[in-house]
Design a protein that fits this description.
The protein is 36% helix and 40% strand. The protein is α+β, with helices and mostly antiparallel strands and 146 residues long. It has one domain (4-144): Nuclear Transport Factor 2, Chain: A (Roll), CATH 3.10.450. A six-stranded mixed beta sheet has the order 2-1-6-5-4-3. Helix 5 packs across helix 6 (133-144).
Length: 146
């Protein structure tokens, strides 16, 4: 059976190949994908393989990730969980702007399937690349005044 790190690397190979269905298929039926830094609360958590598939479906039309330029894997005391630091490069499809974002991912696999993918990324970096910085700032202002 592949290791947790093997599964992580396979997932990124599939993301680079833009095979979002195959990425979703790596998740357990009740797998969870979390994005704690997402500004929109509704985008912070997806539960279940099909919800994750729906989330991933339009990703290649938004971001063209072309390479992982740095990858460091930290093994934990639980062999099913790793923490990964990575940098990806590509471009934002809508603007053509360069996309270079650093991620920290907590990644858990059980019985060969991803059970939890917790992705810490910079909303600021993605907003700059996507040309949506004004919208991000507006949403942060609105959230701060609630």
């Amino acid at each position: 059976m592949p290791t947790t790190e093997d599964t992580f690397r396979l997932m990124w190979d599939l993301l680079l190949a833009k095979d979002m269905d195959a990425v979703a298929d790596l998740f357990a039926e009740d797998g969870v994908a979390e994005f704690p830094f997402a500004v929109d609360v509704s985008q912070r958590r997806r539960v279940g393989r099909e919800a994750i598939r729906d989330y991933l479906a339009g990703f290649p039309e938004q971001v063209d990730i072309q390479e992982v330029t740095a990858l460091t894997v930290h093994h934990t005391e639980q062999p099913e969980t790793i923490v990964v630091e990575l940098t990806v490069n590509g471009r934002t499809v809508s603007t053509g702007e360069p996309y270079q974002v650093d991620y920290i991912v907590v990644f858990t696999v059980r019985d060969g399937s991803i059970t939890r993918y917790r992705d810490y990324w910079s909303p600021l970096a993605t907003a700059v690349a996507g040309g949506t910085l004004p919208e991000l700032l507006d949403s942060l202002r609105a959230e701060a005044t609630r």
